[in-house]
Amino acid sequence: MQAVLNYPKITVIRPQGCLNAANALEFERDMTTALVQNGISILVVDLVAVELLDSAGLMALLSTHKLALSLGRGFRLCAVTPSIRIIFELTQLDRVFEILDAEVDLAAT
What we know:
- With 109 residues, the chain is of the alpha/beta class.
- 35% of the residues lie in helices and 29% in strands.
- The relative contact order is 0.19.
């Protein structure tokens, strides 16, 4: 289950629980749908409620990031918990994704 919030030109997706092989395709489809909507310039994935992230979840995020770049739109992650952040650091994907501390940082984007 995930919540989708819409701000002017910004969509925030808040996945919950596990982002793994069991739900990565559905998660990627939801992100893609949000990203291609007219009037959206930035897609933010709020990871505060994500407890587990595996390689399939990472690939879904990476694929959506690539799509955002090809569409000229922004893609950001926010509220990444320390246990999930370490995954980005170990894979060096923290250098690929723009990671905001919290959703309140959206005002600065």
